[in-house]
Amino acid sequence: MQQLPPANDFGATWSFLESGLDQIMNRLEEGLDRTRYSLLYSAVHNYCARGTPAQPASTFGSGPMNQRTATYLIGAELYNSLSKWLEDHLIKIRTQSEEYMDEALLQYYTKQWNRYTTAARVVNNIFMYLNRYWVKREIDEDRKNDVYDVFTLTLVCWRRHMFEFVHHNVIAAVLKLIERERNGETIETSLVKNIVDSLVSLGLDTTDSTKSNLDVYKEYFEAPFIQATEVYYTTESERFITENSVPDYMKKAEVRLNEEQNRIEMYLHESTQKPASIFSHLISKCETVLVKNHSETLWDGFQSLIDHDKQDDLHRMYTLLARIPEGLDPLRVRFESHVRKAGLGAIERIDQSEAVDPKTYVDALLAVHRKYNELVQHAFSGEPGFVASLDKACGEFVNRNAVCKKSSSKSPELLARYCDSLLKKNAKNAEENELEDLLNSIMTVFKYVEDKDVFQKFYSRLLAKRLVNGTSASDDAEGSMISKLKEACGFEYTSKLQRMLTDMSLSKELNEQFKDLVQQSYNTGGSNVDFNILVLGAGQWPLQPPSTTFNLPEDVVKTYDRFQKFYQNKHSGRKLNWLFQSCKAELKTSYLKASKTGYTFQVSAYQMGVLLQYNNATSYTYEDIQRSTALTPEALNPALGILVKAKVLLLTDGEKVGDSNSRYDLNFDFKSKKIRINLNMAMKTEQKAEADETHKTIEDDRKFLMQAAIVRIMKTRRVMKHVNLIEEVIMQLQSRFKPRVSDIKKCIDILLDKQYIERMEGAMDTYSYVA
Q1: Tens digits of per-residue pLDDT, 444-493?
Q2: Phi, psi values for residue 181, rounded to 5°
Q3: Statement: 222-293 belongs to CATH 2.60.120.510
Q4: Is the dihedral of CA 263, 265, 266, 268 positive or negative?
Q5: Which CATH architecture has domain 583-681?
Q6: pLDDT score for 66
Q7: b/e for 89-125, b at 16 or more Cβ within 10 A?
Q8: Where does the record place the Cullin family profile domain (predicted)?
Q9: What is the pTM of this model?
Q10: Helices then strands, each counted (H, E), the chain
Q11: Is 407 a residue whose pLDDT tops 80?
């Protein structure tokens, strides 16, 4: 059994340790038994722990510690000898490495590195007592001194005596191996990973041996690696893009970027995947070479892809260009222009007549929006910039297209009329779920409408017609639509609409109460007229007072008077203004030869007033009818005209309806395939007049709103320049409509005349508020 050397004999101690180092560093795979390990550890311990230092042998007298005072000499000669031994050992390894090149060199280097670092940990444990006391005291005494713990010393020696001599060949071999992999060859990636890990391990902080850095890694690998990457992909990309299409190039670039990312994750050091490390540097370099340097070509290829709806290629282009600063900006501009042209083209294709069908118009708008909204979501991942471009383009073609050239407010009007067709009773009414989807689609278009006040006016009038005429398909659907408008524009925008629904509900209760009263009187000989009434708030409903006088037929006067008394008893302070032009009736016939059961005529109140006269006679002159009904020619002629056109009455004298002394006979031979015949139809001239009146009301309201906004702003600001005032007015009103600057100027002049505001003396472009 081997004996421990005397503790005070350095030569014997070092000889004993040297044989152990040789075994550990060169033949560790043969094994190191516990006894041998313990003897080596004890030799270091005994030498360092002896009472007085021994004189170092001349062989070991050189080194950093030979000038230290006697108090601290114990361990210095041992540390210096170990350092010299490691140097000699590494020179041998380095000399042998010169026999290898490329991949063989990497295999040799990693094999020696792994053997060396494994052995170094064992050596560090054997010299633990030296670390714990002598090394610690040396470091604490002078941190600038070239002293490290034994394991760090082994790495310092590798860096000085091995790496600094072979790094050129090693790094060159690594880069060649990576290039072979890029060219499609299968390589041993562990070689690259081992080299990278060794470089990170060599990053030592010379001021603090407990810390490390990436200096060696960055200097010897990162910089040349990134440079080689740039050269490789610059050459490849320039060649590939000249020989292939843009879609093919994008696929190639996408594959290459994914490969580099996978390469980093596979064999680069984990610290390199931090944002400020090689991961961002390398990928950024690849993005510059593969994407940024060819961005003009990619941008130019965008139009062809979107023209042919190549969603996969568009998504690939989006993901590539999103990698570089401002790479998507030109795409957003091109996308906006394309969508705007598509929308304008869609409207031009349907604009072939004066009367554009509201459904066709809105469907065309929605089809364009739906198509490109799906494109934004799938090809552009819903990116906010593309969403904004879509919104801007839709705002343009919704408000300024071929149809809107005839009337700038045509879009909101047609949208309101399309909504009316959905909410009105008809044979094609959609199911509840489908109707809700259609209403949501209307709100999609509504979002882009600039003149929301125009929509409000038309929607309000059409809602009033549906409610008054009883043609609304569903109370729930009406409430749902108003709720959507309220969510989009606020309470004020829909307050009157909501009140209209409330009036309908209150009128229903009022009718039930009145019918109970009528039923009681009928049982005692009262009227048998089925009478329904709507009591509507004058301030909420867009209904005009009648423009004509009207004598109610005797058949309904009694019921009319009874309701007047009934309502005054309930609400003594209120006055009822009857809107006979909005009333309707149903009349049952019993005079026709061709029908045993008779027909039911659905008529207006004015038509009812005409037809009930024929209970007393079968022929009347125009003057007779006008005298009995008290209607003006403007009201009587349309009512008579429809009855004559439907052949309910026959014009026997006179050339046209309304002629003086023209005569109207009851047609006993009237026939119809329908049992219920609707004669209460608005004439086109009436519809146009109503639309013109609506537009006039809108213009009047806008003038009031602009004046109110100007006064409100000036009251708050007190003094304001002309340009700033106009900008503020536009900003405040743009949620309802887009005011024209010329109209704002006119309103300012009106307020100047009314002395709400005045010009400042010496500053004609500045206004002040007059309290």
Answers
A1: 999 999 999 999 999 999 999 999 988 998 899 999 999 999 999 999 99
A2: -65, -40
A3: no
A4: positive
A5: 2-Layer Sandwich (3.30)
A6: 43
A7: bbeebbeebeebeebebbebbbebbebbbebbebbbe
A8: 410-644
A9: 0.79
A10: 30, 9
A11: no
